[in-house]
């Protein structure tokens, strides 16, 4: 059986390989082909000041334009990519695309809009990451802190090495650092004190029923107070209703993103949205 073979033996057909890992293998090879064929796209979701609704940044989210299957969402391929080197390939592709887009918007007279890229665990601890960030900033003339990286709590915990040292090195490469999906991991709160990060993003599971569930309201309020106590900015993700926006604003949350304002969009659509949105005044 397969167990008698050496650990490094890799056979395509293995009766012990379950359906899920077979599907993952097929997906990863299709994705490898798709990445090489230029089928990835970066979509952009605005981040807004919760009080004034002014545009203050964007999050870049990967999409895969499959020739037969159409648009494929990251939930369908990022988990498989995370199990291989492909997560680094995808992350590097996104960083190139986003750095170029930030520079293009600036060249169009739209200013330096900060844009965040999500980072997989293997990429976070990849030694090529800080030099790549420096190269991209030099190549596109990006000032410090217009590129932002979003890293989940679990990525920080899984990373080999000292997360604080890795974050410090990234920060010295001139990027802003955000902890994504904050509150969903199993980390202790005291670790935050030692981590050089700039932003906490409240996971959308806490925002979801904030109008109905007092426990979620209290968790969101606690995260906001914690962030501010540590001198960090706080962003709420998944803001879908005006009630949610109002509650988060009342709790002192700085920024928000969500379907209430806009869905993730291709760059061209983002540009149109941006013109229409303007900087609305408070009524
Ligand atoms: P995330 O980084 O937490 O991104 C936020 C997700 O919430 C996005 O889903 C976004 O479309 C969705 N979202 C935003 N506002 C709302 C809302 O109001 N309601 C609801 N229901 N959803 C909202 P998306 O684009 O499908 O991405 C899912 C996850 O996939 C991301 O979660 C991130 O973990 C991962 N991901 C996306 N792009 C990349 C990438 O380029 N690299 C890596 N490593 N991961 C990525
Ligand atoms: Mg994110
Ligand atoms: Mg998130
Ligand atoms: Mg999330």
What does this structure look like?
With 283 residues, the chain is an alpha/beta fold. The termini are far apart. It has 11 helices and 10 strands. Helix 3 runs parallel beside helix 5. The protein has helices spanning 19-36, 74-82, 86-107, 121-124, 129-140, 153-158, 163-172, 204-207, 214-229, 242-250, 267-277; strands at 40-49, 55-66, 70-72, 115-118, 147-152, 176-182, 199-202, 233-236, 255-256, 265-266. Strands 1-2-4-5-6-7-8-9 form an 8-stranded mixed β-barrel, surrounded by 5 helices. The structure holds ligand C2E and magnesium ion (3 copies). One magnesium ion (MG) binds next to loops. It comes from Sphaerotilus montanus. This is Two-component system CheB/CheR fusion protein. Residues 24-278 form the EAL domain.
Question: What are its keywords?
Answer:
283 residues, alpha/beta, 8-stranded mixed barrel, 11 helices, globular, disordered N terminus, binds ligand C2E, binds magnesium ion, Two-component system CheB/CheR fusion protein
Short recap of the structure:
Residues 24-278 form the EAL domain. It comes from Sphaerotilus montanus. The protein has eleven helices and ten strands.
Cofactors and ligands:
ligand C2E, magnesium ion
Kindly report the spatial arrangement of strands forming the biggest sheet: 1-2-4-5-6-7-8-9
Please tell me the overall pLDDT.
91
Q: How would you spell out the order of helices and strands?
A: HEEEHHEHHEHHEEHHEHEEH
Biggest beta-sheet profile: 8 strands, mixed, barrel
Uncertain parts: 1-5
Shape: globular
**Number of E strands:** 10
Assign a percent range to the helix content.
40-55%
Please give the alpha-carbon distance between the first and last residues: 71 Å
The helix/strand class is alpha/beta
Question: What is the beta-strand fraction?
Answer: 15-25%
Radius of gyration (Å) = 20 Å
* Tally of contiguous helical segments: 11
């Amino acid at each position: 059986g397969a167990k008698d073979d050496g650990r490094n033996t890799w056979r395509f057909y293995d009766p012990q390989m379950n359906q899920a890992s077979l599907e993952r293998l097929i997906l990863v090879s299709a994705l490898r082909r798709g990445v090489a064929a230029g089928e990835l796209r970066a979509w952009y979701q605005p981040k807004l000041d919760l009080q004034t609704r002014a545009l203050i940044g964007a999050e870049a989210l990967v999409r895969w334009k499959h020739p037969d299957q159409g648009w494929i969402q990251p939930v369908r391929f990022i988990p498989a990519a995370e199990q291989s080197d492909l997560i680094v390939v995808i992350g590097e592709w996104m960083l190139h695309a986003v750095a170029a887009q930030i520079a293009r918007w600036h060249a169009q007279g739209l200013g330096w809009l900060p844009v965040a890229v999500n980072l997989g665990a293997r990429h976070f601890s990849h030694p090529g990451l800080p030099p790549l960030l420096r190269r991209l900033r030099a190549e596109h003339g990006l000032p410090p802190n217009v590129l932002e990286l979003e890293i989940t709590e679990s990525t920080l915990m899984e990373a080999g090495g000292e997360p604080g040292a890795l974050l410090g090195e990234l920060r010295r490469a001139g990027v802003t650092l955000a902890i994504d999906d904050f509150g969903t991991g199993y980390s202790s709160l005291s670790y935050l004190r030692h981590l050089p990060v700039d932003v906490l993003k409240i996971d959308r599971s806490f925002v979801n029923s904030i109008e109905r569930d007092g426990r979620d309201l209290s968790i969101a309020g606690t995260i906001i107070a914690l962030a501010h106590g540590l001198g960090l900015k706080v962003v709420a993700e998944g803001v879908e209703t005006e009630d949610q926006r109002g509650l988060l604003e009342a709790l002192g949350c700085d920024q928000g993103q969500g379907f209430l304002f806009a869905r993730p969009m291709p760059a061209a659509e983002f540009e149109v949205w941006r013109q229409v949105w303007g900087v609305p005044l408070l009524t």
